[in-house]
Design a protein that fits this description.
By secondary structure, this protein is of the alpha/beta class. It folds into three domains: about 220 residues, FAD/NAD(P)-binding domain; about 110 residues, FAD/NAD(P)-binding domain (3-Layer(bba) Sandwich), CATH 3.50.50; about 110 residues, FAD/NAD-linked reductase, C-terminal dimerisation domain (Enolase-like, domain 1, 2-Layer Sandwich), CATH 3.30.390. The protein is about 35% helix and about 25% strand. It contains 15 helices and 22 strands. The strands form five sheets. Strands 1, 2, 3, 4, 5, 6 and 17 form a seven-stranded mixed sheet that branches. The chain has a five-stranded parallel sheet with strand order 8-15-9-10-11. A hairpin with a 4-residue loop joins strand 18 and strand 19. Helix 2 packs parallel to helix 5 and helix 2 runs parallel beside helix 10. The chain is globular and about 65 Å long. The protein starts with a helix and ends in a 7-residue tail after the last helix.
């Protein structure tokens, strides 16, 4: 028995630092596998950024604002007449807060059910096998065989701009505005900026998105990016692409930004009531004592790990946004489970080629696997099948015909290599293709699977048929 394992006789088998999706899921799975487990988080509630000020509150507001927008703009198309539609922003925010609170409490229930010790406090790794927990007044030292860092990420700063959460906002502040701004400027055309911009656009704000690159959601398939740009612009969202923000000034209840072309050119100003800085996120790994222990991190602060999520220091592991890779809650969950199952001697793995990504605008955009450009860059010969939602009967009956499903498959083996969906519930539609990729299915496998009619999923079947040139309804 190693020294760390001996410690577990008088302490924990595993201490997880961070109770976000990666951390709390890892803690629960470890407890299910018989490990005595504690999960430490500095917040007053469980769930991390995702549940408290990220994924969940944003989706609550996206749903509420979508209903508000449909009531104002679309119900008449369905033969439904209403009186004047009003906005009670305080009630909308209260509903959002209740959704968050209920889910946070649910994690607490799951901790108790599975025997996880949830500990509120700020953690620092004093040494391998030793974690110091501070609650602001006093510190406590606990011992553990293994430590798992799952501390997540924080908004990336933009040089020259100071976030005050009043006029210059992070995503946290944008989720808690007390009134609808007349003009919201969003710096960053990624998924956070577009989702937050969509919320306030629907509620009545003028929204301008400033993006340094020449395309929005640049990590997604280029065709998805182009179509999203056009659809969001048609909804009223304004875009300034290829533009750099160099500074910001607050005065007279508003914000003035200094901007210039990203490739160089004349500077100018853009003024608004509020500014959301949404240029991405960076790992939250400072203050844990990692440098003192010799744990290696990259230039962004991400903890470097091996295929078992182990750091260079024995007994210390890391997952999720705290390590390199896509910053996705579901990726963190999969890594957390794989990490602790490997600790238990199981043969767990994460297939990073089959992790979907979703932008929850309306229509939604979803992607899994490789894009066309990535396949071209890799020199892989592929075939593409694309099916428009305008030809899907369920999309027609719902009046949601914007978008398409595109499936990319290896030209010789027909194995699905990637898929890209733009349309209603794209985040749900992509799951079928992610499952197919996990089993290394061919496009023909999807095409020959019976899909219920009428459903949006039939568009997936038709796109798969299209890979072989056999689409029926297009």
């Amino acid at each position: 028995m190693t020294g760390a394992e001996a410690m577990a006789e008088n302490g924990y088998d595993l201490v997880v630092i961070g109770a976000g999706p990666g951390g709390y899921v890892a803690a629960i799975r470890a407890a299910q596998l018989g490990m005595r487990t504690a999960c430490i988080d500095s917040r007053g509630s469980w769930g991390g950024t995702c549940l408290n000020v990220g994924c969940i509150p944003s989706k609550a507001l996206l749903h509420s604002s979508h209903l508000f927008d449909k009531a104002r703009r679309d119900l008449a198309n369905h033969g439904i007449t209403t009186g004047e539609v009003g906005l009670d922003l305080a009630a909308m925010m209260a509903r959002k807060d209740k959704v968050v609170a209920d889910l946070c409490n649910g994690i607490g229930f799951l901790f108790k059910k599975n025997g996880v010790d949830g500990i509120a406090g700020t953690a620092r790794i004093a040494a391998p096998g030793r974690v110091e927990i501070s609650d602001g007044d006093e510190a406590t030292m606990i011992e553990t065989a293994r430590i798992l860092v799952a501390t997540g990420s924080v908004p990336a700063p933009l040089p020259g701009i100071e976030i005050d959460e009043e006029r210059i906002l992070s995503s946290t502040g944008a989720l808690a505005l007390g009134e609808v701004p007349d003009h919201l400027i969003v710096i960053g055309g990624g998924y956070i900026g577009l989702e937050m911009g969509s919320i306030w656009l629907r509620l009545g704000a003028r929204v301008t998105v400033i993006e340094f690159l020449d395309a929005i959601v640049p990590g997604m398939d280029a065709e998805i990016s182009r179509h999203m740009h056009r659809l969001l612009k048609a909804q009223g969202m304004e875009f300034r692409l290829g533009t750099r923000v160099t500074g910001a000034r607050t005065a007279d209840g508003g914000v003035t930004l200094d901007v210039e072309p990203a490739g160089g050119g004349a500077a100018e100003t853009v003024a608004g009531d509020a500014v959301l800085v949404a240029i991405g996120r960076v790992p939250f790994t400072d203050g844990l004592g990692l440098d003192e222990l010799g744990v290696r991190r990259d230039e962004r602060g991400a903890i470097l790990v091996d295929e078992h999520y182990a750091t260079c220091i024995e007994g210390i592991h890391a997952i999720g946004d705290a390590i390199p890779g896509a910053m996705l809650a579901h990726k963190a969950e999969e890594e957390g489970i794989a990490c602790v199952e490997r600790m238990a001697g199981m043969a767990a793995h994460v297939n990073y080629d089959a992790i979907p990504a979703v932008v929850y605008t309306w229509p939604e955009a979803a992607s899994v696997g490789r894009t066309e450009q990535q396949l071209k860059d890799a020199g892989i010969d592929y075939r593409s099948g694309k099916f428009p939602l305008a030809a899907n009967s369920r999309a027609r009956t719902g009046g949601e015909t914007a978008g398409f499903v595109k499936i990319l498959a290896d030209a010789s083996s027909d194995e699905v290599l990637g898929a890209h969906v733009l349309g209603p519930d794209a985040g749900t539609l992509i799951a079928e293709i992610a499952l197919a990729m996990e089993f290394r299915a061919s496009a023909e496998d999807i095409a020959r699977t019976c899909h219920a009619h009428p459903t949006l999923n039939e568009a997936v079947k038709e796109a798969a048929l299209g890979v072989g040139g056999a689409a029926i309804h297009a």
